[in-house]
Amino acid sequence: MMESNIFSSFSFKASTQTRAPPVEDVVESAELEVTHYVVKEVEDLKKCSSSPPNWREVIQAIRSMRAGQDAPVDQMGTHQLADRTADKKTQQFQILVAAVISSQTRDSVTAAAMMRLHALPGGLTIGNLFRQELTIHQLAEILKPVGFYRQKAKHLKAIAEKLSGCPFNGNVPGTLDELLKLPGVGPKIALLVLWVAFGKGEEGFIVDTNVRRVCCRLGWAPDGSDPNQVRQSLETWLPRSLWPDISFLFVGFGQQVCKPIAPQCERCQVNGMCPSAFQDASKEASKKRSKLK
Ligand code: SF4
């Protein structure tokens, strides 16, 4: 089989013409494609030169630790919480709702709240959340114990109202700018919706609390960076095509191994490359020593 590269794709295009194009057009077209290819390669090389050492090995090791796909995010992440029997537009709305609820809330609590919302008469749709019979107070009671459930109930009602009218007419917007205009939707939620609901995973690197912590501990972002700073930092060097994959990988890794308290450095396959390895244990030991004094 012919190897797939820019030249073979160019050959295919040329062979499907009903009349052969002028030679100079063909040469110009090939030159443009080659230039584009070279520019992309140079951009990737530039990115690699500003990247942390061993980042590819670190990712490979974390991938291997995540091979079981048994972290809470794998089973109960936003991508698992839409009703797959619903139509595409409804599923996009459900993913938006799940993303809003998931902010500062454990996956298991988000999943349970989504189950209760799916059980609403008529299911979880824009119309059902918007209807007057469902008050903000009732919605808050359904969401409880989700973090900030009262605030989120207000936001979800306002989102349903906004999406019901013009210019959305029952559609969840598929651009970052429009999503950010919805109540309670910040960059993390908007990027998550774009990725899960619209398959646009390369709009921005998604940083939740797990991703922020893992990136800082690995030294991929300055210590103490907030999620926005971590996102900006990684977007400067991590190839765009890896953004959704790495973000998802790190969420589960942070849930299972690089936990907020007592990270499991002894079983972590990147402990030889991580500047924060065993620091938690040494902090604990120094605390015990100071108590004994
Ligand atoms: S070695 Fe420890 S701190 Fe570093 S990534 Fe692994 S679990 Fe996290």
Can you characterise this structure?
With 293 residues, the chain is mainly alpha-helical. It has two domains: 55-69 and 204-292, Helix-hairpin-Helix base-excision DNA repair enzymes (C-terminal) (Endonuclease Iii, domain 2, Orthogonal Bundle); 86-198, Endonuclease III, domain 1. The chain is 59% helix and 0% strand. It is built from 15 helices and no strands. The chain starts with 5 loop residues before the first helix and ends with a helix. The model is unreliable at 1-18 (pLDDT under 50). GO terms for molecular function: DNA binding; DNA-(apurinic or apyrimidinic site) endonuclease activity; lyase activity; oxidized pyrimidine nucleobase lesion DNA N-glycosylase activity. Residues 101-256 form the HhH-GPD domain. One of its GO terms (biological process) is base-excision repair, AP site formation. Pfam families: HHH, HhH-GPD. This is HhH-GPD domain-containing protein.
TL;DR?
The protein is built from 15 helices and no strands.
User: How much helicity do the residues have?
Assistant: 55-70%
The distinct ligands, each listed once, are: iron/sulfur cluster
Output the CATH topology of the largest domain.
Answer: Endonuclease III, domain 1
How many separate helices? Answer: 15
**Total domain units:** 2
Could you name the ranges where pLDDT drops below 50 across 5 or more consecutive residues?
A: 1-18
In round numbers, the mean pLDDT is 86
Structural class: mainly alpha
Strand content: under 5%
What order do the helices and strands follow? HHHHHHHHHHHHHHH
The end-to-end distance, rounded to whole angstroms, is 73 Å
Radius of gyration from the alpha-carbon trace, in angstroms: 24 Å
Task: Give a short account of the largest sheet.
Answer: none
Number of strands: 0
| CATH-level-4 superfamily name of the largest domain | Hypothetical protein, domain 2
Question: What is the CATH architecture descriptor of the largest domain?
Answer: Orthogonal Bundle
Shape: globular
In the CATH hierarchy, what is the class of the largest domain?
Mainly Alpha
